[in-house]
Design a protein that fits this description.
single chain; about 260 residues; alpha/beta; Rossmann fold; five-stranded antiparallel beta sheet; 5 helices; 12 strands; about 25% helix; globular; D-amino peptidase
Length: about 260
């Protein structure tokens, strides 16, 4: 069994606001990297408890250089760096995917660090007219590759969002969001124990997870925070100065722009 873990940082246990992921507080940024590694290692442990033979971890926040190999369980491989043409490099042949440390979509009330790919760039993202974030789209991109998403971890709003997009998915709530920069946190030991347990549970029932039905074409609509030069071409429909959309037969390809 090969398991692919895509790890973001905003939904990691112990992180309650933006000061953990910018350069204004170096000590908090360093802590966030440790928190990220702790959640990853707990998830890796849960994978091997469930009988995994191979675990690949994708450092998926920002440019993909947040943790180092020496911080990660040596049984797992680490994928780092930017791969603009592929959302999940190294996922080929995976039997299951875990979305670790995810956050709710842009605009989600009370969610910690809510956004959809870019808080600075996108006000709202819509999938076939429905507001969507990274959870909903990544579940579908994984399905395009034939890989079921079996677990999602994050705050309570991220977990609820995951269940709305993929009923029956295992979720792992590691904090409660009160606002963009405010959360109720649990001790790392409790969070890591919970992640390991939920990971094992999710993988043991992976064959019962139903992937979303994929119907094409699909349409993505970007609503921008500020006006800027919108891409033009035969595959782009400009709605107004801040809104454009694209349609196609692959969610992953539509996100490349």
């Amino acid at each position: 069994m090969k398991v692919y873990i895509f790890c973001d940082i905003e939904g990691i246990s112990g992180i309650a606001g933006g000061c953990y992921i910018d350069n204004s507080r170096p000590e908090l940024l360093a802590a966030a990297r440790r928190f990220m590694a702790g959640d990853i290692n707990a998830c890796v442990e849960g994978c091997f408890r469930a009988g995994a033979d191979e675990v690949v971890v994708r450092d998926g926040h920002g440019s993909g250089f947040n943790v180092t190999c020496e911080m990660i369980d040596p049984r797992a491989d680490l994928v780092q760096g930017v791969a603009p043409r592929c959302r999940f490099p190294g996922a080929e042949g995976a039997d299951a995917m875990i979305l670790l440390g995810y956050h709710a979509m842009a605009g989600a009330a009370g969610a910690v660090l809510e956004h959809s790919y870019s808080a600075a760039g996108f006000q709202t993202l819509r999938f076939n007219g429905r507001p969507v974030g990274e959870i909903g789209l990544d579940i579908r991109i994984a399905a395009e590759h034939g890989i079921p998403v079996v677990m999602v971890s994050g705050d309570d709003k991220a977990c609820r969002e995951a269940e709305e997009w993929l009923p029956g998915v295992t979720t792992c709530q590691v904090k409660t969001g009160y606002d963009t920069h405010c959360a109720r946190l649990i001790a790392p030991e409790r969070a890591h124990r919970l992640i390991a347990e939920r990971t094992t549970e999710a993988l043991r029932r992976r064959t019962s997870v139903r992937m979303p039905e994929l119907e094409y074409p699909v349409t993505l609509r970007w609503e921008l925070v500020e006006r800027h030069a919108v891409p033009t071409g035969p595959d782009v429909t400009v709605i107004d100065a801040r809104t454009y959309e694209k349609s196609g037969d692959s969610v992953e390809k539509l996100l490349i722009w």
